Amino acid sequence: MRRDRVLVVEDEDAIRELVAFHLEEAGHHVLHATDGEQAIAVARTEDLQLVVLDLMLPKMDGVAVLRELRRMGRVPVIMLTARTEEADRVRGLELGADDYMGKPFSPRELVARVKAVLRRTEPPVDSLQAGGVLLDLTAHRCFVGDREVSLTLTEFGLLQALMERPGQVLTRELLLEKVWGYDFYGDARTVDVHVRHLREKVEEEPSQPRLVETVRGVGYRFASA
Question: Could you tell me where the DSSP H helices lie in 127-179?
Fold first, then answer.
């Protein structure tokens, strides 16, 4: 499954790299731009799912970039700026920004907002199917082959997170964030316990998992083949 492509437009290297690092850790593919003109050039050539856009930029400020992005299409935009006056926030939102964050900011909160905006703009998905497993998201039911298995809410969320990105390794920390919430501060070993329970229900041989694979020292991935 293709990762969401997020363009980070920020002229301060340290901030841009910090934002990019956390977005990459959350499973996104990040592109960079250091000024407004470069941002527009990237947007014209790349299929973007979201833009994190600083307001104060060289060559072409964030407001002008946002206005041009809106002429080009409807890619979601989160404004990121040190200017927190109400008039600036209102102006950005009136021009079509989907969200607004002021500096200094929490990287984890920014990642959570990116995910929230992407969820709002993605077409709804009724089911996931891979590796002989069917996950009915509407009816909240799970089938392995022709057998229905009963999953807890947490097990269902864990399997959904893995099946949404088959073949991609998800760290324990990312799974905690996706399934338990970005404000959950529990032990990452919590994931291991629930993965073990999940395997007991969906794997033919839980001790030799075929579907939910362990990537030692990193996390887990759903093997669709």
Answer: 153-163, 172-175
The pLDDT, as a whole number, for residue 185 is: 60
Cα–Cα distance measured from residue 216 to residue 213, given in angstroms and rounded to the nearest whole number: 9
Q: Residue 100 above 90 pLDDT?
A: no
Nearest to 6 by CA among 121, 164, 167: 121
What structural domains and CATH numbers belong to the chain? 5-121 (3.40.50.2300), 127-222 (1.10.10.10)
The Cβ of residue 89 has, within 10 Å, a number of other Cβ atoms equal to 18
Q: Is the pLDDT of residue 220 over 90?
A: yes
Residue 167 structure tokens: 């073949």
pLDDT, tens digit (0-9, with 9 covering 90-100), for 42-79 = 999 998 999 999 988 999 988 899 999 988 888 999 98
Which residues on adjacent β-strands are paired with residue 212?
A: 222
Best CA proximity match to 135, nearest among 113, 162, 116: 162
55 contacts 92 by C-beta, under 8 angstroms: yes
Alpha helices in the chain (DSSP H): 13-25, 36-45, 62-72, 86-94, 107-121, 153-163, 172-175, 189-202
